[in-house]
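Bug #77: duplicate submission created two jobs. Keeping one. Sequence:
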Amino acid sequence: MHKALGLVSWLDCLVFVGFLIPQLVIDPHAGIVKVISWLFTAIPYFVFTLPSLIFHDHILLFKNERPEFVNDSTFFQELVIRLVKYSFANLPSNIGRVFFKGEVVMPFYKFRLLRHGILPGSVPSWNPKEIDQDGARGLWVKTFEDSEPDVVLYYIHGMYH
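Kept job's structure:
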């Protein structure tokens, strides 16, 4: 039995961003110009809205009035939750899809395994294979090469404009 991966840390986030940035730059549907222009539109949220939400929930509200996730999470977890919620609501799909690309997720997952002392090849279900069947792209994870996949994750990114 393999040990579970621990909580995501600041280091994990930095490494993820390290894998993400090159893909954002080279992805034909995202590109550096679109990413930078979106970041400029997000500045008010990062500079004003996010800090004011955190201040409001932690200082102005009584503990029993706070959203449940605020009471149950660390500051880091709360920050990640708020950023992910904002991103899913406001990040264009042509940029957001890059966050889930195999070129970003797979190296990040391998890093997380290695950081926890687990060799990717030693994980029984570690046999991912990118597939493209009739235009449906995704990831198959099999325990054994000759078996049916244990997990099939299809990439759903929406239409490109």
